[in-house]
Specification:
Elements: E1 12-17, H1 33-50, E2 54-57, H2 70-80, E3 85-88, E4 91-92, H3 98-111, E5 116-121, H4 128-131, H5 139-155, E6 158-161, E7 169-173, E8 185-189, H6 193-202, E9 205-209, H7 219-231, E10 241-249, H8 253-274, H9 284-290, E11 298-300, H10 302-316, E12 320-324, H11 332-361
Parallel strand pairs: 1-2, 1-12, 2-3, 3-5, 4-5, 5-8, 8-9, 9-10, 10-11, 10-12
Antiparallel strand pairs: 6-7
Helix pairs in contact: 1-2, 1-11, 2-3, 3-5, 6-7, 10-11
Domain Luciferase-like: 12-315
GO cellular component, one term: cytosol
InterPro entries: Bact_Lucif_Oxidored, Luciferase-like_dom, Luciferase-like_sf
């Protein structure tokens, strides 16, 4: 089942951030956008120095998020790091001009010596549609057109093209060219059948967000993605799966839960309000259930996180695992400790176990 891993080193493990600026639940104070960006860059440096594989940044266009220009922040990170892959998480492709996107990430690829990637998707919020003059009802058509154009830009230095939503290209010079032959692009999925089928039909990687609950309910989506991809003429080796989720790691599971609960509950309430819903007011008992060993919320000591990651690997045979560690106003010092434990204790064990299973299956 794990034949999808393409090397002997096990799955890639990394972290991502959406750059939310949420008031601290204890003090009620929010840090500045400037401080948030500095902490994001410092997180990436720590992840790189500790040996994690990938760092991602999400795109939002709201005052309560610090990152709208992901390529700019990733370019700053590129200059502060050496090895870690750098990806958007997520680029709202429907409201992004593909030519500009390619230029920005090709430049990032050059600055980072070939480390740039893109995860494209819809995102949780819709503010980019009116902001950039698009109609949300055109979402699917826009996404397909922009994705297909981006792939053509990936493949050709000069391009003639015509579509529905932007001006045509006539022997346009597409510059600069990245270090890699093509910039890797994944499609982000929140768990819908449509997004899994789309990723399979396009033959791109699928980054699946599993933010809580029982992870086994997503197994059918991964199977749909791979089956659709194979039916569309792609090889199984082309169809890479990434899993993303929320997490927090501390020395003991009890300590992790005690430290994380106020910030996770704060995050849930804040996002509910952002989305126009009633605050969830998550109780400690509900939180305990959400962090139990069989669920997808990664909160605990290193061994519990290892066990949860390997359980998901048994379900999905995926190539990449990314955790978001910095939600709800949690202080940077706690995030840094989580990064350290993920990199030094969790990642090596998970890589060894997944590489070992790969060798058994050969």
């Amino acid at each position: 089942m794990n034949e999808n891993i393409q090397n002997n080193s096990g799955i890639e493990i990394g972290i991502y951030t959406l750059g939310d600026i949420v008031p601290d639940p204890h003090s009620g104070q929010s840090i500045s956008s400037r401080q948030r960006l500095q902490e994001i860059i410092e997180s990436a440096k720590l992840a790189d120095e500790a040996g994690l594989d990938i760092f991602g940044i999400g795109e939002h266009h709201r005052l309560d998020y610090a990152v709208s220009a992901t390529s700019v922040v990733l370019a700053a990170i590129a200059q502060a790091t050496k090895n870690i892959k750098l990806t958007s998480a997520t680029t709202v492709l429907s409201t992004t001009d593909p030519v500009r996107l390619f230029e920005e990430y090709a430049t990032l690829d050059l600055l980072s010596n070939g480390r740039a990637e893109i995860i494209a998707g819809r995102g949780a919020f819709l503010e980019s549609f009116p902001l950039f003059g698009y109609d949300i009802s055109d979402y699917d058509t826009l996404f397909n057109e922009h994705f297909n154009l981006f792939q053509k830009l990936n493949q050709k230095e000069r391009l003639t093209w015509q579509g529905q939503f932007r001006s045509p290209l006539i022997e346009a010079e597409i510059s600069p060219r990245p270090v890699k032959q093509e910039i890797p692009i994944w499609i982000g999925s929140g768990g819908s059948q449509q997004s899994a089928e789309r990723a399979g039909k396009m033959g791109t990687g699928m980054a699946l967000a599993i933010l809580g609950g029982a992870p086994n309910r997503f197994k059918a989506l991964v199977e749909t993605y791979r089956a659709t991809g194979i039916a569309s003429g792609y090889e199984l080796s082309d169809l890479k799966v990434g899993i993303t989720g929320h997490g927090y790691i501390s020395t003991t599971t009890g300590q992790a839960k005690d430290e994380y609960y106020p910030y996770y509950a704060n995050y849930r309430n804040y996002v509910d309000q952002q989305l126009g819903s009633k605050a969830s007011n998550l109780s400690r008992a509900e939180f305990e259930q959400m962090t139990s060993p069989e669920t997808a919320l990664f909160v605990g000591d290193p061994q519990l996180i290892i066990d949860k990651m390997l359980y998901q690997y048994e379900l999905f045979g995926h190539q990449r695992m990314m955790l978001q560690l910095d939600i709800g106003g949690i202080p940077f010092s706690k995030v840094a400790k989580s990064i350290e434990l993920l990199a030094t204790e969790v990642a090596p064990a998970v890589r060894r176990a997944t590489a070992g299973q790969l060798q058994k299956n050969k």
